[in-house]
Write a structure and sequence with these properties.
By secondary structure, the chain is α+β, with helices and mostly antiparallel strands. It has three helices and four strands. Strands 2-3-1-4 form a four-stranded antiparallel sheet. A hairpin with a 4-residue loop joins strand 2 and strand 3. The protein is globular and about 55 Å long. The protein starts with 38 loop residues before the first strand and ends in a 16-residue tail after the last strand.
Length: 144
């Protein structure tokens, strides 16, 4: 269990992957849809430093680059007002995760992140055994 306080979350600055529509000020962020298990979730939980130079551009580039990995299913990100960030990337198999881990540009970004952007981070890799989703139906009628 975590000792972090529960706090409202806001979308992280990285763009939404192709698996989920991009959010904008008028479009809410949408979760990655459920996929047929088994698949894998890479949970990246981090606390940033005050250094921000180049972070947004690098995050955007990594968001584009990971979409090229075979088996990448999408990612969800959120940040608490207190600075805790969580990004969950979903992959069809461990081979896709390994390909992403070994990507030279990603490795360079990780090194820079450890040196400048992150106070600390933790990565968890989990096999998803069950997945389902829900979406509220749009009500029709007067006023809608």
């Amino acid at each position: 269990m975590s000792d972090h306080r529960i706090a409202p979350v806001t979308p992280a600055p990285a763009p939404a992957p192709a698996a989920a529509p991009a959010s904008s000020p008028t479009t809410p962020a949408l979760p990655v849809p459920a996929h047929q298990p088994p698949y894998y979730a890479v949970v990246f939980t981090s606390l940033r430093t005050d250094e921000t130079t180049g972070y947004d551009a690098t995050a955007e580039r990594m968001g584009e680059l990971v979409q090229e990995v075979p088996g990448f299913l999408g990612e969800d990100s959120a940040r608490t007002p207190g600075g805790l960030s969580i990004t969950i990337a979903y992959f069809r198999d461990l081979a896709g995760i390994e390909q992403w881990r070994r990507n030279a540009e990603h490795r360079e970004a990780k090194e820079h992140g450890r040196a400048h952007w992150y106070e600390r981070y933790v990565i968890h890799i989990a096999r998803v055994e069950h997945s389902h989703g829900f979406q509220r139906a749009v009500a029709e009628g007067p006023g809608r």
